[in-house]
Design a protein that fits this description.
Blueprint: H1 25-46, H2 48-73, H3 78-109, H4 111-121, H5 123-146, H6 165-192, H7 196-202, H8 208-250, H9 255-265, H10 271-287, H11 291-317, H12 325-359, H13 365-371
Helix pairs in contact: 1-2, 2-3, 2-6, 2-8, 2-12, 3-6, 8-9, 8-11, 8-12, 9-10, 10-11, 12-13
């Protein structure tokens, strides 16, 4: 049977071809940016041995650049000024590590004994729980004997061998020294030739007006980020000094060590204060007798930290550089997962630098408002 073609009506309008609906351009762009950020996160995680020293050196150079510029106004060449600043910083860091390594190693070696002492002093809190556990064990032993299970009243002894403090320190010393050397070399080049990257970036701008706007924006970003990093570092050092003086007045041993740790922990808002407050609570338990005296060091630190967070820092920095607590918490968690403790310490300075940079790009200002 022959197939016949359908007769087309001459007066009928031609049928329009069915158009394929494509996803909006915005969705595709968001998806591409999401894939890019995920890949960038994995790349930073696997390249942490290089990326972490680079990030630390870049932030440190922004904080120390005003000092190099001040020396430059006194006709000191930039390479010489960078060398002087770097040697001074490494010398102060080395002196601090040597001075505090003894007390830190002493506290670390006392950890098992300190745990037993803390348990003894807090026995009045744990006695009800211990009584319940003892009763539960007796019931289990009685049930085992009634069921005829051999050895029900015997428990195997488990011996756990932990590494000594010297083994732990030696395992981390090599990586710390290599990272410090890489960071120092990068920091010297950033301080000795601060405008090298900017000059290379200007080559991408096609017109003279674009070059001028780019130079003005970059200068302003560098100035504000440098001012923020230097100011927040001074505030944290002042907080550490005040905490150390307060602990000396309370009679807490090794107060200088705890003051330095307070200054370092304050670079991680909220999380750092909570962790260090718990540490001071443990120090108070080991150093004093009586519930009130035990909690006094942590209580004094909490008061000083609240004054710094809600009075001093907002007054010095202003509301323009305030950060959202949610953004800070998520950002610290992300960088701590990515690079460990060093990532958590530099997370907030990175977030502040990102906010300052976004504020100088008009299309990205709404994203800066999300940060704080």
């Amino acid at each position: 049977m022959a197939m016949t073609k359908p007769i087309r009506d001459e007066g009928a309008e031609p049928e329009e071809p069915t158009a394929q609906v494509s996803p909006p351009l915005g969705s595709a762009r968001v998806a591409l940016w999401g894939i890019f950020l995920i890949l960038l996160g994995f790349a930073l995680h696997f390249a942490r041995s290089v990326a972490l020293p680079l990030a630390i050196a870049a932030l440190a150079s922004l904080a120390l650049r005003p000092i190099v510029r001040t020396m430059g106004r006194a006709l000191v060449p930039a390479p010489l000024a960078a060398a002087v600043v770097l040697i001074g910083m490494l010398g102060a860091l080395g002196y601090g590590l040597v001075a505090l390594s003894g007390p830190a190693a002493d506290w670390a070696s006392r950890a098992p004994e300190a745990a037993r002492e803390a348990e003894r002093k807090l026995r009045f809190l744990s006695e009800p729980v211990a009584n319940v556990n003892e009763s539960t064990e007796k019931i289990q032993q009685a049930a085992g004997k009634a069921a005829g299970i051999p050895g029900a009243d015997e428990f195997p002894t488990v011996v756990v061998r932990s590494r000594s403090v010297s083994e732990i320190l030696f395992a981390h010393t090599q990586g710390f020294v290599i990272g410090l050397l890489i960071t120092s070399v990068l920091l010297y080049y950033f301080l000795a030739a601060p405008d090298d990257f900017l000059e290379r970036l200007l080559g991408l701008a096609p017109r003279l007006d674009d070059k001028k706007r780019l130079v003005a924006a970059m200068r302003e970003i560098q100035t504000e980020v440098s001012r923020y990093l230097l100011t927040i570092s001074m505030i944290n050092l002042a907080l550490g000094a005040v905490v150390a003086a307060a602990l000396v007045a309370l009679g807490v041993p090794n107060a200088a060590l705890w003051g330095v740790l307070a200054a370092v922990a304050n670079f991680v808002p909220y999380v750092g204060a909570i962790v260090f407050g718990l540490v001071l609570a443990g120090v108070g338990i080991l150093s004093f007798d009586g519930p009130l005296h035990m909690l006094l060091p942590a209580g004094v630190f909490s008061v000083l930290h609240l004054l710094e967070s809600y009075v001093v820092t907002p007054f010095v920095l202003g509301r323009r550089l305030t950060l959202s607590p949610v953004a800070v918490f998520v950002w610290v968690l992300f960088w701590s997962w990515l690079w460990g403790i060093p990532g958590g310490l530099i997370a907030v300075p990175l977030l502040a630098a990102l906010k300052i940079s976004l504020q100088h790009v008009p299309p990205l200002v709404p994203y800066a408002r999300l940060i704080g």
